[in-house]
Write a structure and sequence with these properties.
Elements lengths: L1 E4 L1 E4 L2 E8 L15 H30 L1 H15 L1 H14 L3 H17 L4 H21 L13 E5 L4 H6 L5 E6 L7 H8 L4 E3 L13 E5 L4 E4 L3 H22 L15 E6 L5 H6 L4 E6 L1 H5 L7 H14 L4 E5 L27 H6 L1 H15 L3 E6 L5 H20 L9 E6 L2 H5 L1 H4 L5 E4 L1 H9 L17 H16 L3 E4 L10 H7 L3 E4 L4 H8 L4 H7 L7
Parallel strand pairs: 3-4, 4-5, 5-6, 9-10, 9-16, 10-11, 11-12, 12-13, 13-14, 14-15, 15-16
Antiparallel strand pairs: 1-8, 2-6, 3-7, 7-8
Helix pairs in contact: 1-2, 1-5, 2-5, 3-4, 4-5, 11-13, 13-14, 19-21
The protein binds phosphoenolpyruvate and magnesium ion.
Length: about 550
């Protein structure tokens, strides 16, 4: 037996075989070929495989996210079969006697450049699709995997690190746990694991090697230990811990239907965070009373092109309908930083976390923003919607957003499209700037939601993606807690409510502090809802009184 130590970022125990997610690099060399017929046959085989994969992806996407999102895979199928595209590849192979990889890569470059130079915005964006589909064709020519793991057996997924776009697209049905060499506590892999209630360990480093493929392992997501080929004693002990954990979860079930109220009568809302429609089952199963953060950017990450208004509307409407009148707070897309999307064509940045992301993209590309807002307002008719805006730093931004919202509502009025008059508008407090001017921001909005993941990163100047900084990361740092208290006081002074939707909201060591600060809502991963309710129901008045003025500034 071997023990590997990393950082546990999502509690729980998993037992099963290890499978590696690897995205093999495709390299394209220019090579002369004599037998061009054989090369064309090789191309044909790769093309068939590509079409089959795209067909499967289409079916999967149709089931998971609906027809509109799935259509892109049909478009990709059409591109692979396009006569001009195929003719160009065939010509390079036959006339120039060059290898298929080179022919595909050159054709892809030519077609992508051609699309990119067109005036029409829609056609311009096809450049990314040609590249995407050609990359798939190249992988199939070289028999390289796209990282997906094809097995019916349940497994522990291991990887270097996982980008949000990868985790979104992979089939997660058989994943028992996540383990990565790198990654940081608040990275989206960690958040995804918590949302899916799967154990996860990050930062296992070079000790996690690919020769472990297929070997049995136990993951303890609480302590961050991976036991490779566990001995009988360890297996028995972990099996027992696993059963105890299940028992505790069962006990927590008794809290379903109970109020989120302290023994001395202070109530607080407990909502859940989601990344998409697939998470709603867990929200309802854990009896969350609303959704405090729907990270809408995942809808963009799932797609290989901008989701249009209708597609977004259908998705938001479904969420609202399934939540049957309970509050649903949808955050407008937070693309950029660690959540990169090819079709946004964003420039490479030296400091992406301090760069062009979230509301900054929305305010400079209002056509994308307006499409999302129109979809949100149309959906508002079907439930109780709150919309919140990420990465705010100033009053001017909030005013500009409100003007755009007003213009969207006017458009809908003119088109006689119904929407709700009760949509709450809120902003995320996730920059120190927003917290420090929260007295100016509060009168403008209905609510604040504190994004502690980013607020921690920007307050402590610690990159949330950098695993080497975890030892400096003090999530209870008084600077952070003071900023939250300051924002809470300002919200209440101006009649707004305040919630916390960052990961800190689920930290049970701070529940008494948040109650003392007067926080109105905590939004956490679905599997943290009942443990949090258990904690709230045990907090004593004296504990809260003792910390009431600890974080007041001045
Ligand atoms: C946060 O920053 O705390 C937050 C909730 O947003 P995200 O983790 O998606 O950046
Ligand atoms: Mg954030």
């Amino acid at each position: 037996m071997k023990e590997l130590k990393g950082k546990g970022v999502s509690a729980g125990i998993a037992i099963g075989p290890i499978r590696f997610y690897r995205k093999e690099e495709v390299t394209v060399k220019r090579e002369h070929v004599e037998d061009t017929d054989a090369e064309l046959a090789r191309l044909e085989k790769a093309k068939e495989k590509t079409l089959e994969q795209l067909g499967n992806l289409y079916e999967k996407a149709r089931k998971e996210v609906g027809d509109a999102s799935a259509q892109i895979f049909e478009v990709h199928q059409m591109m692979v079969e396009d006569d001009d595209y195929q003719e160009s590849i065939h010509n390079i192979i036959s006339a120039q006697k060059l290898n298929a990889e080179y022919a595909v890569a050159t054709t892809a470059d030519n077609f992508a450049d051609m699309f990119a130079s067109m005036d029409d915005a829609y056609m311009k964006e096809r450049a990314a699709d040609v590249r995407d589909v050609s990359e798939r064709l190249l992988r199939n020519l070289q028999n390289k995997s796209d990282g997906g793991i094809d097995t019916d057996e349940k497994y522990i997924l291991c990887a270097d690190d996982l980008a949000p776009s990868e985790t979104v697209q992979m089939d997660k049905t058989n994943v028992l746990a996540f383990c990565t060499r790198y990654g940081a506590s608040n990275s989206h892999t960690a958040i995804l694991a918590r949302t899916m209630s799967l154990p996860a360990i990050i930062g296992l480093g070079e000790a996690l090697t690919e020769d472990m493929e297929g070997k049995q392992a136990i993951i303890d997501g609480r302590t961050g230990v991976l036991f490779l080929e566990p001995d009988e004693q360890t297996r028995a002990q972990k099996q027992k811990e696993y059963e105890d954990e299940l028992k505790h979860r069962e006990l927590l079930q008794e809290l379903k239907g109970q109020d989120n109220v302290t023994p001395y009568g202070q109530s607080i809302n407990v909502y859940a965070n989601i990344g998409g429609l697939n998470d709603i089952g867990a929200v309802l199963a854990n009896d969350a009373r609303g959704i405090g953060l729907f990270r809408s950017e995942f809808l963009y990450l799932e797609n290989s092109d901008y989701p249009d208004e209708e597609q977004q509307f259908q998705c938001y409407k479904k969420v609202l309908e399934r939540m049957a009148g309970k509050k649903v707070i949808i955050r407008t897309m937070d693309i950029g930083a660690d959540k990169q999307i090819d079709y946004f064509n964003l420039d490479k940045e030296d400091n992406p976390a301090l760069g062009y992301r979230a509301i900054r993209i929305c305010l400079t590309r209002p056509e994308i923003f307006k499409t999302q807002l129109r979809a949100l307002y149309r959906a508002s008719y079907f439930g109780s919607l709150g919309i919140m805006f990420p990465m705010i730093i100033s009053l001017e931004e909030v005013r500009e957003i409100k003007q755009i919202v007003a213009s969207v509502k006017k458009e809908l009025d003119e088109e006689n499209i119904p929407y709700s008059d009760d949509v709450e508008l809120g902003i995320m407090i996730e920059t120190p700037a927003a917290a420090m001017v929260s007295d100016q921001l509060a009168p403008e909005v209905d609510f604040f939601s504190v994004g502690t993941n980013d607020l921690t990163q920007y307050t402590l100047a610690l990159d949330r993606q950098n695993p080497h900084l975890d030892r400096f990361l003090d999530t209870h740092h008084p600077a952070l807690l003071r900023l939250i208290q300051f924002a809470a006081d300002n919200a209440h002074k101006h009649g707004a409510w305040i919630g916390i939707c960052g990961e800190l909201g689920g930290d049970l060591e701070l529940t008494d502090t948040f109650l003392a600060m007067g926080i109105d809502e905590l939004s956490v991963s679905p599997n943290r809802v009942l443990p949090l309710r258990e904690r709230i129901r045990s907090v004593q008045k004296e504990e809260v009184e003792a910390i009431k003025s600890s974080y007041k500034i001045g």
